[in-house]
Amino acid sequence: MAGRIVTAGDGRAKSGSAGVKNGSMMFERTVQQSVRCSGIGLHTGKPVSADIRPAEAGQGIRFRRGDLPGKPEIAARYDLGTDFTLGTTLRHPDGVASVATVEHLMAALAGLGIDNAVIDVEGPEVPAVDGSAAPFAGLLRRAGLRTLGRPRRAIRILKPVSLTEGSKSVSLEPAESFSITVSIDFDNPVIGRQTCTFAPADDDFLTALAPARTFGLLHEVDWMRQQGLALGGSLDNAIVINGSTVMNQDGLRFANEFARHKALDALGDLALAGAPLQGRFVGNRSGHAMNNRLLHALFADESAWEWAPVAARAELTDPPLAAVGL
To answer: Which residues act catalytically here (predicted)?
Structure first.
């Protein structure tokens, strides 16, 4: 990616927000040790696993298909997104491999501030777990986090970038810190109109966003399975709605769990920018495809963004794992 570089002490960083002083920077992080997640794929219905391993500074997040010859690696980058039907799929530039439904794991990595990791995937997609990011976050917490010796950089939004398709819209706007606001509108009495705003500086990812599960309408299940989708879907890994009834025995985790999950999806999709964003994301009835196209639009305009150092802030709060259902 191009864009202007703003370093600590660079005078340009003082227009809009002060430069970061030496000693107050945040540094990149990885996991302390490897952890494994096993289960079934939401769409394939096949057994899959993912081993999340430490990586060196500057390596970013990389998926490695350990079940394929040569173990091809796929960088977690927006420009490698190829299929956004009920999830986000990344494909190797040479077309030799792909990995699907990466968004919830990417959201967990972003929510915990993990910049570098190698994820060995055995199978064509990431395990569905319970349909949220909470199990991934719990594994990452148990693995522990290790600070690396490279200052963390953010992608600072300099001017609004937006896309509109009928009643759907997405935008990135300049702001002092990162936040997500998502609005949804479903013709269903259980979902209806909902809004969720998530700001990492004010909200705890582990309790506010990570537990929100994916969802679907029962009458759409037959169509999805005819398309080869949701073959592994069940009440164990999704909220299923039948008319005005939530079929899951435990009900909803939040009154606006549907909007929270869309915000979680957006967090995972935006993590494919390759670095944390400094700006405000607003999505109205948007989905994976529009989120990805927004990143393409952002990076196509070099005047819309710049590199900036990330100021150190208080570490993530550590509520008991039981508090987030782990």
So the answer is: 288 (proton donor)
